[in-house]
Each structure stands twice: as structure tokens, then as C-alpha cells.
């Protein structure tokens, strides 16, 4: 009730059911451990298919703050206060002292301040999602102690500083989403040790340095998005014949020639636009198993665009604003030895 008193939800009446002495039955969003009768889960989502939202014909809006009183719920396993758009203030530092917490999902609010510096104490944590808030500061060094973490989402906040060099300690991680922040420095080589990592999104930051060669040797990495950074150097040779099927390296300062393709090259999206790539499009691209969307525009590429797949279904926009590319689908004809 102390937690409820710091929140205001004016439209849906989700707290109307929070009456009586027994919070384990029929309190909206609350569930308890059947053995201990202690509160185990708080699940309050502002965007849901729950009938209370359908009846109101709107998504949720809630203001107020997350009260430190929530830390009195020592058996709390899951804390979800998501997509309410108006909840502000800081994440209570004492959240890091909840020994059974597995899920912390606070996406889609207006939270400020920093992540608790000792968040690494939450050894059972599997999901940490604070995306779409206004959280600032550095990524806490203790975060890499969360060796059971499977899902990390820090997107669209105001984190700055570097990605911890020992990020690879998060061995169980399958998704690491850190886009739309102010992160700087290089991509840690240790990332490649996260053998379960399938989705790595570091786009729209201020990262610099090169792409670690080892990223192209990760077994299950399917999505790699580094769009909109300050990354330099060449494209690692292994990256175009890796497990990655959605590769976005657009809007960086990558240079050198395009690596060779091979039968393992399979891309639903391959976006290398707005870099400083030179040379020609390697003929080996015809050996790729599949390329759905390809964008090589705004580089310094030259020579004839190879004929056949995958070029027969691509538009001119995929090749425009290069130095001297020619041939279909561009209107520029190739002359002589081009």
C-alpha cells in the first residue's frame, strides 16, 4: 500500500481491486508464492490486451514515483512497471538488495537518475529492461556480475562512458540492446565470449575504434546493428560468412574493400551504406545463399555491378552516390574495361 500511495493512475482504476487484508487474491497485477503467501510478482503494464484496457479503449498512463517501500517485499521475484509513460523519479537503490529478484522491467516511463551501482548483487536476475526512460550515468561496473542475465535492454536512455571491458562475463546473455545512448569508446573484444548472444544492438551511440574480428566467429549471433557510430577500419572478413543474417553497419567511417562472400553468406538485411568503402563489388557475392535487402549507397565504390542474383531484384537506390559504380539497376552505363 505504501508503494501504491506514491503512484497515481487516473483512467483505468487498476488499483480499485487493492482493498482488504489479503493482497494475494484478486489484487490486480499481484501474485504470491503459494507456499509462503508472500508477494512474489508485481506485474503492472500500461500496454496490455487485458480486458481493463479494452474496455477503456486506451493505453495506460500513470504518474508518481517508485517508492523504496517496495524493497520491503523481500520475496519479490518479478517487478514489472512498464509503459506507463509518466512515472518519474529514480529507481530505488534498495532494489539491488532484493535477493530473489529475477525480472526487473521498467521500460517506457520517465525514470531519471542512475542504475543502482550495486545492481550486480542481484545474482538471480535474468531480465533487466529499463529502455525508453531518461536514465543517465555510466553502466555500473557491477552489472557484469549478473552472470545469469539473459536479456539486457538499456535502449533510448542517456547512458554515457564506455561499455565495460569485461562485458563478456555475461555468458548467458541472448539479447544486448544498448542503442540510442551516448556510449563511447570501443566495442569490447570480450563480447565474442557470450556464446548464446543472438542480438547485439549498439546503434546510435558514439562508439569508435574497429569492429572486433571475433564477432564474425560467434556461433549464434543473428543480428548485429552498429548503425550511426564512429567506427573505423575495415569490415572483418569473417563477418560476411558468419551466422549474422541482419547486419547494419551504416553511417560509420568504415573503409577498405568489401570482403569476399561465400555460400554461408545469408542476409535478410545487409546495410553498409554511408561509409568510406572503396574498390568494387566482389563477384563472389553471387555465391551468397541469399541477400534480401542490400544497401551500398553513399560510399566510394567503383566498377560494374555484377549481374544476376541478388542484384536482379534491387533498386538503384541501393547503389547511388558512389564514385563510379555502373551497370543495372543504375542508369550509368559501363564504358570500356569498367
Q: pLDDT below 50 for ≥5 consecutive residues: which ranges?
A: none
Give the H and E element order: HEEEHEEEEEEEEEEEEEEEEEEEEE
N-C termini distance: 75 Å
- Tell me the strand order in the biggest sheet: 2-3-5-7-8-10-12-14-16-18-20-22
GO cellular component, one term: membrane
Protein name: Leucine-rich repeat-containing N-terminal plant-type domain-containing protein
Organism: Linum tenue
Family: Belongs to the polygalacturonase-inhibiting protein family.
What's the SSE blueprint?
Elements: H1 2-5, E1 7-8, E2 30-32, E3 39-45, H2 51-56, E4 62-65, E5 78-82, E6 85-88, E7 103-105, E8 127-129, E9 136-138, E10 151-153, E11 158-162, E12 175-177, E13 182-185, E14 199-201, E15 206-209, E16 223-225, E17 230-233, E18 246-248, E19 253-257, E20 266-271, E21 276-279, E22 290-295, E23 300-304, E24 324-326
Parallel strand pairs: 3-5, 4-6, 5-7, 7-8, 8-10, 9-11, 10-12, 11-13, 12-14, 13-15, 14-16, 15-17, 16-18, 17-19, 18-20, 19-21, 20-22, 21-23, 23-24
Antiparallel strand pairs: 1-4, 2-3
Structure description:
This is Leucine-rich repeat-containing N-terminal plant-type domain-containing protein. One of its GO terms (cellular component) is membrane. Keywords: Cell wall, Leucine-rich repeat, Membrane, Repeat, Secreted, Signal. The protein is elongated and about 85 Å long. Helix content is 3%, strand content 28%. A hairpin with a 6-residue loop joins strand 2 (30-32) and strand 3. It is an all-beta fold. The chain has helices at residues 2-5, 51-56; strands spanning 7-8, 30-32, 39-45, 62-65, 78-82, 85-88, 103-105, 127-129, 136-138, 151-153, 158-162, 175-177, 182-185, 199-201, 206-209, 223-225, 230-233, 246-248, 253-257, 266-271, 276-279, 290-295, 300-304, 324-326. The termini are far apart. Strands 2-3-5-7-8-10-12-14-16-18-20-22 form a 12-stranded mixed sheet, with no helix packed on it. A 9-stranded parallel sheet has the order 9-11-13-15-17-19-21-23-24, with no helix packed on it. It contains 2 helices and 24 strands. The longest helix is centred in the N-terminal third of the chain and has 6 residues, at 51-56.
Amino acid at each position: 500500500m505504501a508503494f501504491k500511495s506514491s503512484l497515481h493512475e487516473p483512467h483505468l482504476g487498476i488499483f480499485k481491486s487493492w482493498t482488504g487484508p489479503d493482497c494475494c487474491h484478486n489484487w490486480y497485477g499481484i501474485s504470491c508464492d503459494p507456499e509462503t503467501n508472500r508477494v512474489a510478482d508485481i506485474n503492472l503494464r500500461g500496454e496490455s490486451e487485458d480486458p481493463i484496457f479494452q474496455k477503456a479503449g486506451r493505453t495506460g498512463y500513470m504518474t508518481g514515483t517508485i517508492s523504496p517501500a517496495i524493497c520491503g517485499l523481500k520475496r519479490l521475484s518479478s517487478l514489472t512497471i512498464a509503459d506507463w509513460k509518466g512515472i518519474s523519479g529514480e529507481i530505488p537503490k534498495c532494489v539491488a538488495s532484493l535477493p530473489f529478484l529475477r525480472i526487473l522491467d521498467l521500460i517506457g516511463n520517465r525514470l531519471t537518475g542512475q542504475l543502482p551501482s550495486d545492481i550486480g548483487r542481484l545474482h538471480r536476475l535474468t531480465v533487466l529492461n529499463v529502455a525508453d526512460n531518461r536514465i543517465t550515468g555510466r553502466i555500473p561496473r557491477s552489472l557484469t556480475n549478473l552472470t545469469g542475465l539473459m536479456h539486457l535492454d538499456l535502449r533510448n536512455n542517456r547512458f554515457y562512458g564506455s561499455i565495460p571491458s569485461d562485458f563478456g562475463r555475461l555468458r548467458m546473455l541472448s539479447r544486448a540492446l544498448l542503442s540510442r545512448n551516448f556510449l563511447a569508446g570501443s566495442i569490447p573484444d570480450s563480447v565474442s565470449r557470450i556464446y548464446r548472444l543472438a542480438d547485439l544492438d549498439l546503434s546510435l551511440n558514439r562508439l569508435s575504434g574497429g569492429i572486433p574480428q571475433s564477432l564474425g566467429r560467434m556461433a549464434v549471433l543473428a543480428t548485429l546493428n552498429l548503425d550511426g557510430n564512429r567506427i573505423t577500419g575495415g569490415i572483418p572478413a569473417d563477418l560476411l560468412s558468419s551466422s549474422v543474417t541482419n547486419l547494419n553497419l551504416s553511417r560509420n567511417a568504415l573503409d577498405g574493400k568489401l570482403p569476399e562472400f561465400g555460400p554461408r553468406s545469408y542476409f535478410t538485411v545487409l546495410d553498409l551504406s554511408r561509409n568510406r568503402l572503396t574498390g568494387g563489388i566482389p563477384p563472389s557475392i553471387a555465391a551468397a545463399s541469399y541477400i534480401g535487402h542490400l544497401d551500398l549507397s553513399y560510399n566510394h565504390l567503383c566498377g560494374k555491378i555484377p549481374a544476376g542474383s541478388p542484384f536482379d531484384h534491387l533498386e538503384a537506390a541501393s547503389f547511388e552516390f558512389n564514385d563510379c559504380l555502373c551497370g543495372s539497376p543504375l542508369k550509368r552505363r559501363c564504358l570500356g574495361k569498367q
